[in-house]
Amino acid sequence: MMLGIIEVFIVLVASLLILQFLKLQWMRNQLPPGPAPLPVFGNLWLLNFKLRRETLLTNTYGNIYTVWLGQSPVVVLNGYKAVKDGLVTHSEELSGRPLTPFYADMMGIFLTSGHTWKQQRRFGMTVIRSLGLGKNSLEHQIQMEASHLVDNFANTKAKVQREIEAVLEPSQLISYEDRKKLPYTNAVIHETLRYSNITSVGVPRQCVRNTTLLGFPIKQGTLVLPNLHSVVYDSEHWEAPWKFNPDHFLDLDGNFVNKEAFLPFSAGHRVCLGEQMARVELFIFFTSLLRAFTFQIPEGVKEINLEYILGAILQPHAYKLCAIPR
Ligand code: HEM
Fold first, then answer.
1. Which domains are delineated in the chain?
2. What is the pLDDT of residues 188-215, one digit of tens each?
3. Which of 206, 213, 259, 287 can pair with 96 through a Cys bridge, CB separation 3.0 to 4.6 Å?
C-alpha cells in the first residue's frame, strides 16, 4: 500500500525524533548526571523556559549536574566547593565564554574568548589602572560624584548612621580606607551584595580545553555555569542565607570578617573587571548618602515589592523613597 505524503512526513519526523533521542542518551553518558533531556526542548520544560536561580538551586543532582537548554548541555556547578573547583582550580580551562546567536554581533570583553579576550582583558586592566584606582584619582572622582548624589536618595538603618556619626566628621570627604573604621556599614554593603546578588546565577563559561571537574571529565567546548547564587546562598557557609543579616560579615565583637563564599563578583581569570571600582563606589556613595539623609518609604505606603525583575541582571521594581535631610 502506498503511503501518503502526510504519513511519510510523520514517519520521517518520528524517526528523526528517535534518532535525536538516542543521540542525546549517548551524549548524556559523557556528561555529569542530570534530568533526561527531550529532543528539541532538552530540559527547558523543567526550568519553565527560564534560567532562574530558584529552579537551578534544586539540589536533586548534587553539586555538579547537566541541564539541557534545548540541544545544548550546560554543566552546572552548585555550591561554594564546586564553583571554587571550576572558577579557581580550573580557572584557565574555564576561561571561555559561549557565543550564542543572541549576541553573536556583540564582541565586547564580556563575550569574547581566547586570544581576543586576553587582549581585551589586558587593555581593560590598563584602562582601569590608568583611572588611578588605588592611587586615589578614581577615588577622588567617586568622592565628587558622591557629593552630587547626596542631592538625591537611597535606603537603610539608624545603626549605620550612628556608626558613621561616631567615626566621621560631618563634612569630611569619605575615603575607601574609612571602611576599616566602619565595620557595620561595610557589613551592610557586603550583605546587600550577597543577598541581592545582581547577576543571579552568574555568567556561563566555556571550557577551552578538556578538563576534569569534581572527578567528571568535561570536554573542550562544553558550557559550564558556575552558579554564583548557590555560593552566596550556600547554607554550609552562611548561617541564614535567606535572611538579610549583616552579622554574616561580623564576628562576635563586631569586627568585619571577609567570607570565602562571598563571590558576587565571581573569581579566577575572568573575575569581574570592575570589582574594585564597584566596591569603592558602593562604599563612598552609600556612606555619603546615609550621612546626609534619613531614608523612609512615603507616608501611607505599607510595603515595597522586593521581588526582582529578571533581565540581563536582576533589577528592583520601581519604588518611591523619601530622602529627609538630617
Ligand atoms: C555590584 C557591581 C558588580 C557586580 C556584582 C559584577 C559582577 C560581575 C560578574 C559576576 C561577572 C562575570 C564573571 C565571570 O565570568 O565569572 C562580571 C564580569 C565583568 N564585569 Fe562586573 N560586576 C559589577 C560591576 C562592574 C563594573 C562597575 C564594571 C566596569 C567598570 C564591570 C565590568 C565587568 C567586565 C568588563 C566583565 C567581563 C570580564 C571578562 O569576561 O573577562 N563590572 N561582573
1. 78-325 (1.10.630.10)
2. 999 999 999 999 899 999 999 999 999 9
3. 206
DSSP letter at 324?
Answer: E
Kindly state the DSSP code that residue 219 receives in the 8-state scheme.
Answer: -
The residues, ordered by sequence, that sit 6+ positions from 306 with a Cβ below 8 Å of its Cβ are 316
DSSP structure string for 223-289: EEEE-HHHHHT-TTT-SSTTS--GGGGB-TTS-B---TT--TT--GGG--TTHHHHHHHHHHHHHHH
Atom of ligand 1 at shortest range from CA of 226 = 16
User: SS3 of 197, please?
Assistant: coil
> 148: Cβ–Cβ under 8 A, 6 or more apart, which residues?
none
> Measured between alpha carbons, how far is residue 37 from residues 54, 55, 57, 253, 295 in Å?
20, 16, 18, 51, 49
**Least trusted range by pLDDT, from 89-98, 149-158, 191-200, 228-237:** 149-158
Q: What are the grid coordinates assigned to 310, written together?
A: 529578571
User: Is the full-model pTM beyond 0.85?
Assistant: yes
Question: Residues lining ligand 1, CB < 6 A?
Answer: 109-110, 121, 124, 198-199, 202-203, 228, 264-266, 270, 272-274, 277-278
Helix (H) or strand (E) holding 295: strand 293-296
Question: How far apart, in whole angstroms, are the C-alpha atoms of residue 246 and residue 233?
Answer: 14
Residue of 187, 231, 192, 184 lying closest to 76 (CA atoms): 231
Alpha-carbon torsion, ordered 124, 128, 131, 136, to 10 deg? -170
Instruction: Give me ligand 1 centre to Cα 16, in Å.
Output: 42
What is the per-residue pLDDT across 155-179, written as a single tens digit (0 to 9) for each? Answer: 457 889 999 999 998 888 999 999 9
